[in-house]
Amino acid sequence: MVVMNAVAAAVRRTTAVAVLLGGLLALLAGPAGAQTPQVLVTEVRGAITPVVAEHLVDAVAEAERRDHQALLVELDTPGGLESSMREIVQAFLGADVPVIVHVAPPGAQAASAGAVITFAAHVAAMAPGTNIGAATPVDLQGGEVGDKIVNNAAAYVETIAEERGRDVDFAVDTVREGRSAPASEAIEVGAVDLLADDRADLLRALDGRRVELADDEVVTLRTADAATTPFEMSAVRRLLQALADPNLAYLFISLGTLGLIYEVASPGAGLGGILGGILLVLGFFSLSVLPVDVVGLLLLALALGLFIAEAFAPGIGVFAAGGVVSLVLAGLFLFQRSTGLGVDLTFLLPVPVIAGGLAVAIGRFAWRAQRRPPIGGPAGTVVGQRGEVRGVDDGTAEVLVDGALWRARAQEPLRVGQQVRVVARDGLTLVVEPVGADDASLEAGA
User: Fold this and answer.
1) What percent of the chain has pLDDT over 70?
2) 15 found inside a domain
3) What average pLDDT score do residues 11-35 get?
4) Is there a domain that residue 180 lies in?
5) Is 6 within the bounds of a domain?
6) Is the distance from CB of 409 to CB of 389 less than 8 angstroms?
7) pLDDT in tens, 393-425
8) In this structure, are 273 and 346 located in the same domain?
9) How many domains is the chain partitioned into structurally?
10) Which DSSP helix (H) or strand (E) runs through 424?
11) First-residue to last-residue Cα distance in the chain
12) Which tens digit of pLDDT belongs to each residue from 175-198?
């Protein structure tokens, strides 16, 4: 009986321990099983540049690494570089995490390269009041390209539309016809998947949606109660993207060239050359990541050449006036109009006028500087002038003449404070003679 009681007690203790351990394991496993789904969110505002391409490729990799429910890209772009667009499309098509593109907020657009990027997403959404399309390729002059290039671009977009189950005719028309459509029409024809007012509305609408990834894996989105994690550009990338601005490129190149002109026309401490060089480097970086037009570049070069001519051959401002007109036209034609990029009117008119005025001022300043007699120039420039002895040391004096200190010698001893007249110059040494009291009186009377 005692043995049976002992066994029963042992069983009870073992059962209690097992129940306790099970409860602890349930508590530990509970939070993991109920972990809130995460959606990685990033924004793209402005031109599609290499900076944006690098950022979105990194965003895809981060969403995959963190095992997020999805990557949400909120897009508003007038377009950009084809090479950057293709890099982004490749990352989206090969992603192992659902990629959602939301053209938002209302008033945003997914034009040109932005339209193709939207087509490449697993889920394409638009906010009311947005538009998508106008993906016709252009050449470096901003004009129409040959059939070969258009056919290639159309085939590329057609492949993407087929891969994502979107309306192929609409996608091809955005390339061949430059077709663009508002959100309501894009939904109706099947170019995009759904309409969502904002981020919260989009995540609710996506909940339960099945998405097929690159490896044929089908996942079901759980986004109704998902938390969003922002994925922002680094400070360096934000700076580089900010520099990829048509207005800044226009301003930097104009003022940078004037800085170099000033330094060459009137050499000094080098500040103008340093600032000019920095501005030109920043301006050329901006042009390197923007879709520029060759005609605009030629007009820009002509404007800068005319400003240089004004600085080195100042006249009545004809060169400067021509430079102003050329710079205005350069601003109009510098960037491909089909991308929606261009120089704003707030820069287009003031910058050329200021640049022309500075070119005239630099020319006048350099002209006066060249005509001013140099202190160390020909002997006749100081002969006959009066000066004052500032110091005497071992028979050699130091005199102040015309604001500059010279070494001087005389046939008789000199003393500090004595007035002298320059009678000759021997290299960098002046030959002087004291100014007597009679001479001083005569000069005072005169």
Assistant:
1) 81
2) no
3) 52
4) yes
5) no
6) no
7) 877 888 988 777 888 888 888 888 899 999 888
8) yes
9) 3
10) strand 419-426
11) 146
12) 999 999 999 999 999 999 999 999
